[in-house]
Amino acid sequence: MTEVNRILVFVMIVMLLSACYKSDNKFEHGNFVYPATLGEWKKIEIPGRDVIQAVYGSIDDTLVAMTCYDLYYSVDKGKSWKHTFKTNHGLSSFHFQNDTIMAYEGYIGQNIEGESGIEFQQAGLSPLVYSIDYGQRWNLGMPAQYHEVHPLIGNVYDAKRKVNYRVKDVLNGSENFAEIEYQVIQKICDDEFTQVAFPLKCYIENLYIDKEDRLYVCLGHYWKFYKEISDGKISIERPGVIYYIDIKKLQ
Q1: Does any domain span residue 12?
Q2: Residue 51 lies inside a defined structural domain of this protein
Q3: How many beta carbons lie within 10 A of that of residue 57, not counting itself?
Q4: Which domain holds residue 156?
């Protein structure tokens, strides 16, 4: 084989791999911020194609997922899901306390220290249901040993590395009026603020870190969803997707 032929074969292999790597989700096309990092993140899809409000547990054993009105769990790495609870109340977040998972409804505002001073942060209002078997069965109300907590939404702390990850709005507009263009993940360490190379331009509902040091990203809508609505086009369906990555890859 000549040198020219070897080069041509190499180019063809690269092109083939690139073609195989293309996302099978049409809503991801045109919604990239860091497209080169997409292969580093693993994707889980939830039934119903709805906004993912929160997750809890671990992809290795039991992962519990929350949409606006439904609760699910998976024990096979997200390949299949069992629906366990439905409500007319808007669900917002999970909190774990005294061997009990609580699913919160509603929102409350909290003030936190941000890049430009004190900033507003949403938190879960109060538990609607709780589970003592990792989301397989849910009981209405609050557990007997509940101590009032308002879990922050879109804000998690990696205690091992003393790093905070949180959702940050990217605004588009004038000084007097600005709307959220999309959202990114901000990494805060030693008072330094940097942006995590999450590949997609989207709205992010929540973040979560599991016991194996994986960061989970709960998607709301892709940026294109809002763009098409504002242009008066027919709305596209919601993603119903969670992405996760080993935190060590973000160092």
Answers
A1: no
A2: yes
A3: 22
A4: 24-250
Overall domain count for the chain: 1
The torsion angles phi and psi of 235, rounded to 5 degrees, stand at -70, 145
**Within a domain: residue 130?**
yes
Distance CA 38, CA 30 (A): 13
Eight-state DSSP code of residue 231: T
22 residue type, one letter: K
Residue 145 CB burial class (10 angstroms; 0-12, 13-18, ≥19): exposed
DSSP letter at 152 equals B
Q: Coil, strand or helix: which one is 43?
A: strand
How far the first Cα of the chain sits from its last, in Å, is: 43
Q: What length does the chain have?
A: 251
Tens digit of pLDDT at every position of the chain (251 positions): 555 444 444 334 333 333 333 334 444 444 566 777 878 999 999 887 788 999 999 999 999 999 999 999 999 999 999 999 999 999 999 999 999 999 999 999 888 777 667 778 899 999 999 999 999 999 999 998 899 999 999 999 999 999 999 998 887 765 555 567 778 999 999 989 999 999 888 889 999 999 999 999 998 876 555 455 555 554 444 568 899 999 998 86
Cα dihedral 204, 225, 198, 75, rounded to 10, equals 60
Record the tokens describing residue 240, joined without a space.
């119903």
Torsion of CA 35, 213, 202, 176, to 10 degrees: -120
Tokens of 112: 């936190």
Instruction: Let me know if residue 152 belongs to a domain.
Output: yes
> What tokens were used for 15?
């092109």
